[in-house]
Specification:
Layout: H1 8-16, E1 22-24, E2 27-33, H2 39-53, E3 58-62, E4 65-70, H3 81-96, E5 100-101
Antiparallel strand pairs: 1-2, 2-4, 2-5, 3-4
Helix pairs in contact: 2-3
Length: 104
């Protein structure tokens, strides 16, 4: 069963609970800066929760910045509740690993 895209009101409400996250180019995105030595552990922790959720982010790493992009393929690439739930888990993991929102 395909996922249902969030309505604009639902997305706005979700974003109010996801500091540092925004929608850019059709993806729910956030980027974090982390000490390079802590980056592998953060990535491994995120990969584990992605696998548990059977939902995966696009991950871009440049030096000490890691950016996550989320949308749901079976919803036509729209942002769904799957994405906002995973974003909340990623934010929690980032905080636990000492990552700070980088703002871009």
């Amino acid at each position: 069963m395909p996922s249902t895209p969030l309505t604009p009101a639902e997305l706005e409400a979700a974003l109010s609970d996801l500091p540092g996250w925004s929608v850019r180019n059709g993806e729910l995105t956030a980027s974090f800066t982390v000490d390079r030595g802590d980056l592998p552990a953060l990535y491994a922790a995120v990969a584990a929760v992605e696998d548990q959720a059977n939902h995966h982010a696009a991950v871009r790493i440049l030096y000490a910045t890691v950016e996550f992009g989320l949308n749901t393929h079976d919803a036509g690439g729209a942002v769904t509740a799957k994405d906002t739930a995973l974003a909340a888990r990623i934010s929690d993991l980032a905080d636990r690993h000492g990552a700070r929102p980088s703002g871009s």
